Structure formats: structure tokens, C-alpha cells
Amino acid sequence: MKIFTFHLVSPSILTAVKTLIYPPCPQQVPGLVHAECMNEMVLGSPIFSPKRLQIRRLAMFAAWESQQAIDSFLDSTHIGEAFRTGWHIRMEFLRRWGTIEEFKELPEVAGEVEPTAPVAAVTLARMKLREVPRFIRWGRPVEELVRDHPGKTFATAAMRLPRTVSTFSIWKTRKEMEEMTYGHSSVQRPERHAVAMKERERKDFHFEFTTLRFKPIGEFGSLRER
Length: 226
Known about the structure:
This protein is an alpha+beta fold. It has helices spanning 13-21, 67-76, 78-84, 132-148, 174-182, 192-202, and strands at residues 3-9, 32-41, 54-64, 87-99, 119-127, 152-160, 164-171, 206-221. The chain has six helices and eight strands, in the order βαββααββαββααβ.
């Protein structure tokens, strides 16, 4: 069974830029299936703000053949040593919505957890550049909804220019995450995510898009609030 990780780290600018240009790949890292390296963003931050693209804050979403492969990467490679100074979470895959080339082999359903169990979610998309203004218009209210939602324990976003955008969130329970998704939360303007989903169905912002749900199985290291 594949193991998935989401990493956050604040390396030197040189290491950050080099990692974005030359991300870890299976040919160089035994046991790595695929890795997406991006700059972290602050959810809900102004579009023209240093918080929207943080050069020295890296996020990496990756799939691995085993936990041993993750440990070997962190302990035995130069870039892995940089990621070891940050924080990461390890996860088991549960469900997939949508399709993106690098993860198209994942089944739609691999398992599920109880409504009261914690879950994590990753969205990963390749943008249609001409749709970026629409995406910003409909996406920022969703960012604010997730950022301020009492059911989430952690949430962030990331991007790699020019097309890749991603979000990552950890939720206290599956039920609270699903209530947010479908507009049933007891918060102000709970419909923001559901309305944005309908707009995407009407005219897609992306040429590839997927949402992946996971069961968290362990956190390692520390960085800021984690």
C-alpha cells in the first residue's frame, strides 16, 4: 500500500529555488512514486501580497512505496535532510474525486473512516491560465471559509508557477469536513464552497483537478503551529 506525505519546510532561498526547479523524482529517490514541490501560500491572503507566494516556504505532497522509503529519503539525501528540519504528516489514501495524470491510477474508493474520525484532504489542480481571474474570484471566499472553520485543525495552500495550485487541510472529523464541503456548517456563509463547486462544474477553472481524502497516521517534526 502506498503511503502519502505532506511536508512543510523553510529552507534557505537557494535550497528552495533549487528544489522547485529540480524536485525529487523516482529516478533519484528509491521508493518515491511522485512528488509535487510548491511554494506555500497563506489561505485568504490578498492576491498582491508576499503571503500569496512565499519563496522560502516549501510544501511537498508525495506518494511513496513504503514508510521505509520516506525515512531513507529524509536520512540519506541532501534535499531530504532539508525537509527533515520541517514538519510532515503521513497518510493512508481513502478516496479520490476527479483526475490528475500523476495520480490517475488511484481508485475512487479505497476505504473510509467513521464520521467522527479525523481526516486530511489534498486538492491538486493544473490551471487554465485564462481562467485565473475567475478562479481567484470564486476561490478566495472558499479559502477564508476553510481558514476560519472551527472543524479544521490545520489548513494551508501552495502553488508552483505557472499552473499548479493545491490546498491541504486536516479536520477534527470526517463529518465536519463534509458539512463544510456541501454548505451545511454552522458558520457564517456556509455555502461558499458548494457555490464555488457549482461554478466549476458550469465552466471549469482547470484542465486537471483532483481531491484526495486521507486517514492521518502520524505527524513528525515541527514548524510554526504544528
